[in-house]
Design a protein that fits this description.
The strands form four sheets. The chain has a seven-stranded mixed sheet, with helices on both faces. It has a seven-stranded mixed sheet with strand order 8-9-12-13-14-15-16, sandwiched between helices. It has two domains: 3-148, Cobalamin-binding domain (Rossmann fold), CATH 3.40.50.280; 175-438, Aldolase class I (TIM Barrel, Alpha-Beta Barrel), CATH 3.20.20.70. The protein is α/β, with parallel strands linked by helices and 441 residues long. It has helices at 20-29, 45-52, 67-80, 91-95, 97-103, 116-127, 171-174, 202-206, 215-229, 245-257, 275-283, 298-303, 310-323, 340-353, 370-373, 405-422, 428-438; strands at 3-7, 35-39, 57-61, 85-89, 109-111, 138-142, 145-148, 178-179, 182-187, 190-191, 211-212, 233-236, 263-268, 286-294, 326-333, 357-362, 380-382, 398-400. Helix 1 packs across helix 6, helix 9 packs across helix 10 (245-257) and helix 10 runs parallel beside helix 11. The chain is globular. Mean pLDDT is 93; it is low at 425-441. 38% of the residues lie in helices and 19% in strands.
């Protein structure tokens, strides 16, 4: 069976990064099947049409923000060949499998959570005419009903997954991304998150246990990206880099031992100051840190289960500045319990931290999050069309007990202007990166 993996176009990203999710799946599937990969963010639609002519199975990555376009692609596949199997995967459909299959007849199967192992087993079952119910980690239609199979086991040893199939991608298109004049791309060194933030899908999607790649495996991928494709700057797109200090130090030491001389940045927890670790990161080429503050009010931080220690956050930021990092702090407006008073507290605290750039976001309840599942108890109500209204990071999809959609939109503009005046450096590259990063949540 020939497989076509597709990344839908999302027109609102400033930075276009290689699609790692379908890249990892492609790298495994091509060991036993012919595979092609199309990223419609950087490739013409005609390429998709061309590859579709010979595809038996089409896999489409689905974020909530891209589901509108993913659905259209599925419908196009079926309009051209009703026999071609359409498989949807990714965060959005993982948490809405029944709705996805009931309302979208062009989608045949949903892959839940990690897709690498599941797609391998699914193709084997299809080729052997086996019962789909034997494939863990999928949802499908049978006898007019949506059926869910057993949960798939998460991949414990991430080193067993080959690097993303970069050779199937138009890598020259991503080389246009720059950080300080150098080509920039992204990698991940781990999966999973131990924290419980009510607005985030990371832990529900990948588990609360963090699974790590070895330092040597990370170093090998960076060498490949540098030597073959010319990338000298990197975003470490882990959910929270540095949670396990020993493992993260091994990655830094590996970069130093190989004398890779790259620049990189990542997102970290704000309330874990560590001078020795920060110094090692700087020596290993880290130039920027993005921190999620979310709120400057302790009660709200407790309510959203962020649990940041604001006093420790002050120390972290002071150490980050002292060590020479460029920093970004992100906040969220419209959190449960937010009022103009708590927003002012957040603005004041964030400005006091003295970041180089700020990212001001509006709370968005994504499927799979505690917030989405318990909107009423948290005092929020989703008002956007399901799911076409979820297409912009800067547009509200809900109202709260204290703010309307328009008030949240106006408030974001106001707060962003205030904090940008407080910043000491233009944060364009950070804001572009963060918009890309937060969209998976």
């Amino acid at each position: 069976m020939k497989v076509l993996l597709v990344q839908p176009n999302y027109p609102f990203y400033e930075l276009k990064f290689p699609p790692l999710g379908i890249g990892y799946i492609a790298s495994l599937l091509r060991e036993s099947h012919p595979v092609s990969l199309v990223d419609l963010n950087v490739e013409p639609h005609g390429r998709f049409e061309q590859e579709l002519e010979t595809a038996d199975v089409v896999g489409i990555n689905c974020l909530t923000r891209t589901f509108r376009w993913a659905r259209e692609l599925a419908e196009e596949v079926k309009s051209r060949s009703s026999k071609t199997l359409v498989v949807a995967g990714g965060p959005h459909v993982t948490f809405t499998p029944v709705e996805t299959l009931e309302k979208n007849p062009a989608i045949d199967i949903v892959v839940l959570s990690e897709g690498e192992r599941t797609m391998q087993q699914l193709l084997s079952a299809l080729e052997s005419s086996g019962d789909l119910y034997t494939v863990p980690g999928i949802a499908y239609r049978a006898d007019g009903l949506v059926r869910m199979t057993a949960r798939q086991t998460l991949i414990e040893d991430l080193d067993t997954i080959p690097f993303p199939a970069y050779d199937l991608m138009r890598m020259e298109s991503y080389q246009r991304n720059e950080m300080n004049g150098e080509p920039v791309t992204h990698i991940i060194t781990s999966r999973g998150c131990p924290y419980e933030c009510i607005f985030c899908i990371c832990a529900p999607l990948y588990g609360r246990k963090i699974r790590y790649r070895s330092a040597g495996n990370v170093g090998d991928e960076i060498e490949l990206l540098r030597d073959r494709y010319g990338f000298t700057s990197y975003c470490f797109q882990d959910d929270t880099f540095g949670t396990n200090r020993d493992i993260s130090k091994q990655v830094c030491t590996e970069l130093l031992d190989r004398d890779l001389r790259i620049k990189w940045w990542t997102e970290m927890r704000l309330d874990r100051p560590d001078r020795e670790f920060f110094q090692l990161m700087r020596e290993a080429g880290c130039v920027g840190l993005a921190f999620g503050l979310e709120s400057g009010n302790y009660e709200i931080l407790k309510r959203i289960k962020k649990g940041i220690d604001l006093e420790a956050a002050k120390v972290t930021m002071a150490l980050a500045r002292e060590t020479g990092f460029n920093t970004q702090v992100s906040i969220i407006l419209g959190l449960p319990g937010d009022t103009m008073q708590t927003v002012q507290e957040t603005i004041s605290f964030a400005a006091m931290l003295g970041a180089n750039a700020y990212s001001v976001n509006i709370l968005t309840p994504y499927p799979g999050t505690e917030l989405f599942e318990n909107q009423k108890s948290y005092g929020v109500e989703v008002t956007a069309d399901r799911w076409d209204g979820y297409t912009r990071v800067d547009s509200p999809v809900m109202r709260t007990n204290n703010f309307s959609e328009q008030e949240l939109k106006d408030l974001r503009i106001y707060v962003a202007e205030l904090l940008n005046k407080a910043s000491t450096r233009n944060g364009k590259i950070f804001n572009s990166y963060l918009e890309t990063f937060v969209s998976k949540r």
